[in-house]
Amino acid sequence: MYRRHFCFDMIARVLSAMAAIGCIFCALCHAHENHHSSADADLVDLVNEWVFRPNYALPRRAAHPRVGFSAADNLADPEFARDSLPLRLMGLSPTERFRNLVPTADVPRQEFTFEAWINNHVDQPVGFAAVAGGSSSPQDSGWAIAYHSFPEGQSRAVAKLVTRQGETVELACDHDRSLGFQEYWWHLVLTFDGETCRMYLNGKQQAEASVGSDGIAWPATPQFEIAAYLEQEPQMQLANLLNHARLYRRAISTKEIQQRFAEFKYDLEEGLVRPGFFHFTVSPYLNYATQHSIRVLWETDTPAAAKVEWGPTAELGNSQLLEEPKRIQEYEITDLEPQTPYFYRVTAINADQEGLSSGILTFQTAVRAEAPFRFVVIGDTETRPHINHELSKKVWGERPNFVVVLGDLTDGGKRDAKWQWSHEYFTGIAGLGGRVPFYPVPGNGEGDLYWYKRYHSLPGDESPYSFTYGNAEFFMLDSNRKAIEFPPGGRQHLWLEDKLENSRADWKFVCFHHAPFSSDEDDYGNAWLEKPNGGDDEVRQLVPLFEKYGVDVVMFGHIHSYERSRRISTTSTDKNGVLYLLCGGGGGNLEDFAPNPTNFSSKVSRGHHYVLINIENQKLDLRMHDLSGGLADVTSIDKGQAQP
To answer: CB of 143 within 8 A of CB of 132?
Structure first.
């Protein structure tokens, strides 16, 4: 038996193939001792295993490996090869193909099992197929299994086998998200015992068909490949959809399938990104930079001690040992100089004395009060780490001082859905978050604050909180509590009024998740059937405070689109009113606008995006960039300019 593990990460560039292979076997044995038991007892029957992970790193010299991952091989084609015909799925050609995944001689012919662990958290049709067949026509012999989805959460799994009599045997299973593990995960298994093929979904048999004693027809040189069909999600990779796959040379039993399903569930519930390896489930990232300090957080798959090192050069020179083993760790680096670049490294040490290093990363402390600065605003990163990553690369190109995230970091990352943090949010922003501090507010996606508070280190009780940067002050609210805490006399209403009244900042920004003003088509009444409400009445209870205390910009998400208002004043015609900025295109399923214009709106745009805001003394410049990096909106506020 041999194995390859394909993890599409930068670590493949820095580990030799031999060292990686050795690491893989050791780590797998250790993992199986812990919680992987019966289904792995017969690994002699495992032909091959593939663990797919997206290769997300910042470009050029900012790239660093997602440490703790290993790759025994890469997916490069041989120097000379004859290309095989692709399998079409739903009339579509594949967007990615990984061919010749096992040698011809090792493609199982008498019996086999194909197992896949799928995460489908997007609203566009996507799919993948695994094919064992001929190079000239993959559908005329062998077998194929495919998964594809439809809008509105419907999916279908289908398998086809060609008998020696030339007949096609088909199995199919239609399902919706209510049958998935935590809605979006599917454990799909196809078995063939020499006569009968069976399909299983999340540990339960869904279909069965007889092939007959003659068995499957095979070409002389069968090939095995896995292909992705992601035309409707252009930034998506197979690794975003297919998490794990195995090919066995026998039909594994129902009991083994159920055990495998239980093991996958355990790994997800624990947020294990690469089970069997000591790894950062969340790579080191930054929160809350001041002129003299910054906070670093990270998470490992098992409790670990850690060493944090930092300094003004890559030689570092300062260090702190955190001796108490924990999974989620944080450390505040203090006694720093203002507006100064620094280097840092986090090394985790587990109970077996294995070391795990982040590599050398960078940050800069907050600027002095009179200095210009720039920050980026994104919201609703939610379901698409592939979009988060594309935006992260564009944002990194701007070199902002920090990033504001306007809630719904996850689609539903509450206490029982840790994977939405480890497998989605932090997967997409890890590279950027390791070099630029993030300042979030919670959305309804993480409304219980369970993982939100554990994964962040922010001032005060973290919700609400405020911070000063340069000549600006930011007031960060939790609008999930808007019904109780936003009315006059409510906790956050009183907190915000006190903060605003005592603020001496030149610029005042208020950030939360839900939309006080919106031209969305159906979130606040169906605009195609009636006049919509135009926003959230419970949030609008704060508008008098914004106007009374001279708030410049109110920023929010929740609606998955972009909208910039005019400068609004509800109590006068003052041109120096409040600018309301909807910035909800960070990765969630996109939304659209009402058919008619609204009187408060100045610019609307449907698409994934980020906003860059430059502050220089009394002038603010705002630019919105779409996913391609193109400039889609621009405006400015100049407080030093005389008003008519």
So the answer is: yes
pTM higher than the cut 0.85 = yes
Give dist(CA 375, CA 365) in Å, integer.
Answer: 13
Torsion (CA) 572, 575, 577, 583 in degrees, nearest 10: 140
* Torsion region of 480: left, alpha or beta (phi above 0 gives left; psi -120 to 50 gives alpha): alpha
Cα(493)–Cα(484) distance, rounded to whole angstroms?
Answer: 10
274 CB contacts (<8 Å, ≥6 apart)?
7, 51, 53, 68, 69, 301
Gap between the Cα atoms of 410 and 211, Å rounded: 44
Whether residue 399 has pLDDT greater than 70: yes
DSSP H helical ranges for 486-584: 491-502, 543-548
Burial (0-12, 13-18, 19+ Cβ within 10 Å), 355: exposed
Which of 440, 441, 362, 443 is closest to 396 using CA atoms?
Answer: 362
Q: Structure tokens of 407?
A: 């809630």
| Distance separating alpha carbons of residues 321 and 100, to the nearest angstrom | 47
| Interval 197-236: pLDDT, tens | 999 999 999 999 998 888 899 988 888 999 999 999 999 9
Find residue 131's DSSP bridge partners. Answer: 144, 225
> For 34-71, how does the pLDDT look when each residue is reduced to its tens digit (9 = 90+)?
445 444 545 779 999 998 888 788 888 888 755 444 43
Cα 72 from Cα 453, distance rounded (Å): 37
pLDDT of residue 3: 36
For 44, residues 6+ apart whose C-beta sits below 8 A from its C-beta are 1
Q: Which two tokens stand for residue 523?
A: 């979130």
Read off φ and ψ for residue 329, nearest 5 degrees.
-125, 155
d(CA 78, CA 86): 18
